[in-house]
C-alpha cells in the first residue's frame, strides 16, 4: 500500500530527498548520534514520570481494581506542518465546527435539516446520544461544542500527493490537549537550539485561550464569571489533564460532591462558604452529570444541575447532548451540514463512509470486510473495531457475526494508508503512521492554537494510534512565515 511520508519525498533507501519544510530539521537530525537521541528519549521518560503525566488503562487492573497507570510514550522527532497547509486546515476546522454547532442547535429546536430530507430523523431524534432534556434550551452564543477535538489524517491520492481528511469529530469531552502542551515543553527542554533555527508557532497560550472561551460562554449577567473544571475523580483515565488544565487556567478542580444546587443556582463549597459557579467545564459524561435527570445512582455529578442549566443560571461546556454530532453514523452528513447551514463548500474532506444500517451499504461491507475498517458508531479508543487488512480470517468471521447482529451500530471506511513520520524505535529511526488532533475553541468566536496533538502508532505497520492501544505522541510544529519572529513556546 502506497504511503505518504511527512518528511521524505522518497524513502532514505531511495536517496531520501527531504521535503522543503523539513530541510533544516533533517540537516540537524543527521548530525545527531543514535546514543544521543536515546539518552534524550530516556530523559524525557524520567521527567514525564516525575511530573505524573500518565493515563489509566481500564482493561489492565491493579490490585485495587483501578486501571493501571501508564506513561504515554513521547517520540522526540516532531511532526512539522508548513504555514500554508495549516492556514487551509485552520479554515476548514473553523468551518466544520461552526456547522456542527448549527446542527446541534437545530437538532434540539426546529430540526430543519431533517425536515429538508437531508438527514434521517432516526439519526437525530432517534439517536442514543440525543437528549430530550435539551429540547428548547437556549445556550449562550448558540454554541454547544465549545471545545472540539477534530481528528485529521493524511493519505496519498492517486498521484501520491498527501491529502488531509477528517476522520472523526470529538465533541463530548475531547482529551489530549495537555499532552500537546507538555510535548512542546519537553521538546524545548531537550533541544532548545532547534527553536532558534525554526519559526515554530507557539502553543503555550492554549490555557489562556481556553479560559477566555469559557468566560465568554457564561450566562448573561455574569460580569466576573467563576469557572470550574468538573472531573469524575483521580481514577479517571484523563485525570492528569483535568488537574493540569485547572491549574494552568487558575480555576478550581471540583468533583460532583463539591457542588450543590440551591434555588436553581449552582454553588461550589469552599472553606469560606458557598461560592456561585457560572461555567462548568465538564469532563464527565452526560449520563453521570445529574442523578435527578440521568443515572440516579451517579455520584459523579450534582443533583439539580440540569434545573440550573435550564434556568439559564449556569453554562455547561460542552453542552449536554453534543454527543449527537460526534456519532460516527452522523459523520457522513457533515459536508451537507456545511452546505445547508453555511451555504459553503467543505474545505476539508470526509473519508468515504458506508452506513451499515443501509442494506446496500451492509452488503458491500460484508463482501469487503478484508479490505475495510469497521467501527462502532459510539466506539472510542481503538476498541470495538475491525481493521480488515490486518485481521485474521477467524477475526473477520467473528466480526461478521457481530455486524449482522446489529448492523446499525457500525460504519465502515476504506483502510487509509495514514501518512508516516520518522520515529525513534528500539532499532533506530523508522517511519510510523500518525494522525493529528487539533483543538478548536468556540465562544463568541472560533480560535485555535497552531497544530494539535500528533499521535503515532509505535508498532511497525500498525494503523492504531490510540494511547490505550500502544500509541505514543509527538510534538507538532506549525512553521510560521519566515518574516515572522522565531519562537516556539
Can you tell me about this structure?
- A hairpin with a 5-residue loop joins strand 4 and strand 5.
- By secondary structure, the protein is an alpha+beta fold.
- The chain has a domain of 64 residues: Dna Ligase, domain 1.
- The two termini are 37 Å apart.
- It is built from 12 helices and 23 strands.
- The protein has a 5-stranded mixed β-sheet with strand order 3-23-22-19-18. A 5-stranded mixed β-sheet has the order 13-5-4-20-21. The chain has a 4-stranded parallel β-sheet with strand order 7-6-11-12.
- The C terminus is likely disordered.
- The protein is globular, with a radius of gyration of 23 Å.
The dominant shape is globular
Mean pLDDT: 91
Kindly report the oligomeric state of this protein: single chain
User: Which structural category fits the helices and strands?
Assistant: alpha+beta
Strand fraction band? 15-25%
* Spatial extent as radius of gyration: 23 Å
* CATH architect. name of the domain at 352-415: 2-Layer Sandwich
Distance between the termini: 37 Å
* Largest β sheet strand count, sense and barrel closure: 5 strands, mixed
Quickly count the helices. 12
Pfam family, one: CP_ATPgrasp_2
Protein name: Circularly permuted type 2 ATP-grasp protein
Region (Disordered): 467-489
Domain Circularly permuted ATP-grasp type: 78-457
